[in-house]
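User: I'm putting together a teaching handout on how multi-component assemblies are represented. Below are the sequence lines for each component of a complex, exactly as they appear in our records. Could you produce the 3D structure of the whole assembly as structure tokens, so the students can see both representations side by side? Please keep the chain order the same as the input.
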Amino acid sequence: MDVSPFAPKSFPEMPPVKGFDMAVKASGIRYKDRDDLWVLRGQPGTQIAGVFTRSLMPGAPVVWSRRALLAPNDPELPRVIVVNSGNANVFTGRSGDKAAELTANVARKVFDVDAKAVMLASTGVIGEPLDVAKIVRAMPDMKKSMTEDLWEASARAIMTTDTYAKGATATAKIGDTEVRINGIAKGSGMIAPDMATMLAFIATDANISQAALQTILSGFTALTFNAITVDSDTSTSDTVLLAASCAAKHAVMTDPHDSALNDFKNALLKVMLGLSHQIIKDGEGATKFIAIEVNGAVSDDSARTIAMAIGNSPLVKTAIAGEDANWGRIVMAIGKSGEPANPEKLSISMGPHLLAERGELARGYTEADGAAYMKRDHLEIKVDIGLGGGSYTAWTCDLTHRYIDINADYRS
Amino acid sequence: MDVSPFAPKSFPEMPPVKGFDMAVKASGIRYKDRDDLWVLRGQPGTQIAGVFTRSLMPGAPVVWSRRALLAPNDPELPRVIVVNSGNANVFTGRSGDKAAELTANVARKVFDVDAKAVMLASTGVIGEPLDVAKIVRAMPDMKKSMTEDLWEASARAIMTTDTYAKGATATAKIGDTEVRINGIAKGSGMIAPDMATMLAFIATDANISQAALQTILSGFTALTFNAITVDSDTSTSDTVLLAASCAAKHAVMTDPHDSALNDFKNALLKVMLGLSHQIIKDGEGATKFIAIEVNGAVSDDSARTIAMAIGNSPLVKTAIAGEDANWGRIVMAIGKSGEPANPEKLSISMGPHLLAERGELARGYTEADGAAYMKRDHLEIKVDIGLGGGSYTAWTCDLTHRYIDINADYRS
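Assistant: Of course. Below is the structure of the complete assembly, with chains in the same order as your input.
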């Protein structure tokens, strides 16, 4: 498989996070000789927040994990997250529910945890039974190989059609204590608002209550993982988990708005944005990374709907693939969004170039300027609706032949 | 340009419709040596109904025609419809409004009609000024060449990226009088719910009041032109006009529900469905024609939303391009539609093959059956939601490399 032109030269240096260890294994669920199973263990007292797909046909692991998130769990026991790639365990009927339950139960036996508090995530093909015996067989070996320093291999184990492993790391101060935040994620099609075939797992040693973690994660997800779209399709398996081992020595933080958390929140947002952008840059067939900034809408929600209408438009995305500064298609996308807009107030820019204002081509704009700008691989579309104070930024990629190649051929 | 594999061997035989004549002309708006201008004239007393794009950024011709539809017009004067291809006259500011007004005014002078009742439609590039002088120059010649028997040339004159001319014809009885219905249309990208870069013009000699015509046209549009999608994008120019010359000798029909209109309505629906399907079959890059039939939804509206979510999903459409009976992606699309559905009640068929029922793979289904079926060029996806009595059928095409070729390169 061709690697995305945006693939980083190397995986970021990701030191251990206090209170977590992990293992990977090639269990043979679907891929041959490739790690496809990952276990992350948090020490006793670990708190986990989660955000899941809004699909009304979620996979069994999502149904399980939603429940596990709310389950009371013994603070004396560790927490584990078990993730497999290759099979999404979606639309697999009762056998899918049983596969999820069995996975949690084997994790309980092997890792001595509370099965009800085991978090699961699966990604890969839909509608084929998950051969859970392979997970059962692999787990004891994984227990023996648990180690703190395995983030890159972990990021590789959760990949499906991703062409590179995605990781981001940051440190922050809470009071005088330095804490670390490590995140890994996988894409790379079916990425759309409200999650996609997108899994992201973020671990920190910060000492934060579950309720505060959840508030922070949900708020930031709206600005990061839910602000990206590859193809407007939404997966049945999307899961973002934020786990805090609470190993750091600062006092426990219970108020998500406490200013002592500001530095931590900035760092977490940076990690989440970093992972989101890496997902888009590995969007199936992507050759352009596009930020769509909408200002002047009647509300932030309206700005988001407009930004997503632009980001999801096949005609906008193919024009960009063709390096065509086709602002007419941006007008089309704004028009079909259904949100308040008025051609005579609207302006559209690409990077530094004002293309259109007040309902017509901007004076001084030349096609040559636009054409030169479109050759870049990082592009910025700026739309000013001119009606209010609502704003939102979304990110997407172009729609190319490679997307078709990958998706006309995924199962075979 | 490669012609669609679905292109008919020849344009249908379309005899004249009493009370209408027409002309075409190569005015040089954008294309060289190709007809790009069409005038249809209906005799005095002609009634016109119309349906337009729901885009909030409609082109100047749509704004003009919406008003013209409601304008009182002199029953002693003919009606004309003026259509150009090559330039959509959208987002062209005040000059676009003036271009529309000027076109209507020159039609008034040349054809001796009421300018306010002239209907306009334009299709082509967005955001570039329409050189209306070319239309002004062409119109007197067109007046001289008006003829009744020019439907194929008319269908060609309104094409943009279409690879074949689209026409459909039928006859029907109203009482003892035979009436004719002729329709032409153009596609072929930006085709989506609530109209697309889609123009359709239907002429009949039936004697029907404007109000009754409008009721019939609006109702049937929901089941035909609004039930098709190529790429989920909606154009700023979509227009469907139904003109009745009222030349037929039967008594005027004013009640759209009068059973004397049943045969006429069946014939009109056939013409509208025929044109809709031709548009999909000429969808940019289409190699598969796909009917998506949803039953058992909680309402017809819900069924429509689900059918459109499937028809608009890039992952479903690329799977079909790859001849993969990937029902998992259909499950994904149903899940993201946001409509009530329950995996345990859901069943999915492709043509005669039941793929999935009650949340899992159907007994007896084999991948070989699915693979053999997917090689056909006409495909049927049937979804039973199992919750209620709502149903809807939508039509779409696959998403292929040719779509990218055409759209990454449209303006150059």
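A couple of points students might notice: Residues 191-196 of chain B have pLDDT under 50 and may be disordered. The longest strand of chain B covers residues 177-186.
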